[in-house]
Amino acid sequence: MATELIRGIDELCRRVKGEFLEMPGLRLTEPQARRLWGLHEASCAQLITALVDERFLFRTRDGAYMHVEHTAPLEANVSPRARTTAA
Known about the structure:
By secondary structure, the chain is mostly helical. The protein has four helices and two strands, in the order αααββα. The protein is elongated.
């Protein structure tokens, strides 16, 4: 019984990760995630917390969850004149 539960949780995690990877820019609030994945409030909160803890998801300022993209940081767009005067 416990093995089946663990297998079900693993499958759900793979499904959730797959959906975020297949749809770049996907943003879901917790209520939207609950409806999409058919989860109870506590189960969804635990799943999202686990994915945030492993740095797969992050919470935006407006409370939505998105996949963490591992990209190089953007450089500020500074004009060459501003660089020379600041030095």
